[in-house]
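Lab channel / #folding
Pinned by the channel admin:
"Please post every new chain as: sequence first, then the structure tokens as a reply. Keep commentary short and put observations after the output so the thread stays searchable."

First post following the new format, from NK:
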Amino acid sequence: MRVVVVGAAGQLGRELMRVLPPETTVGLTRGELDVCDADAVGRCIAALAPAAVVNATAYNRVDEADRDPSEALAVNDAALGGLARACADAGAFLVHVSTDYVFDGTARRPYTEDDTPDPRGAYARSKLLGERRLEAALPRHAILRVAGLYAAGGSRGKGGSFVDRVLAQARQGKALRVVDDQVTAPTWARDVAAALARLVPRLVVGSAPSGVYHVTNAGACSWLEFARAALALAGLEVEVAPRPSAPDDPRPRYSVLANTRLAAVGEPALRPWRDALAAYLAA
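Reply from TO:
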């Protein structure tokens, strides 16, 4: 079963290339395939004839998107049209990676896949528009919502992962101030990749249904708690001061996701976020 990973140089893309069978997996970086070029996408997918495509490409610079949403809309929304058409023509199943930020953050219990999204910022709106475009264009698809993703090397658009930035600043003796009023389920990209490696073949053959899946490490914490846990596990005794979110920060204050559908299809739950963080730092 051939799988094409689009966005193979990103956090999740790199981990997918690590866990998927190398003999049947093709990874395409943004430099090798511009998802915004629908003609190029169509030609590429037709030539590769995969059983499944995983779209791990995203524009995720949240603050910049609020100032100028054009690139976020192009990558996170409009590009889904070309990807969906290419997969429809090739008979391929499309897995698209989305985000916890599609929710408004006013809930006080984990969001399920059936909860109604209500994004608050330009980035989040672009991700929801992409979800809606895919749902309308391609029946054979899955939308995979993740949260607080981190991996070795991090996201180039953000200057590395949150964990790596925190540890680097601590080792340089810089003062650390981290938001304490945003609660999520920080998730190691390697655990998401492992879950996808199990799920994608089932999606292709139909033993797992199309639709939305939440895939995150278990539990929840604030970014402040996550930073303190990373420092403690790394053996760094550094004080981290709490700070509130800026009044105009579009990020949801609470965006924990319930992995309800993953459990419903018999897939194992991802480990608790603290265990995943310890494994990440050990690796």
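NK: The chain has a mean pLDDT of 96.
TO: also worth noting, The two ends are 29 Å apart (CA to CA).
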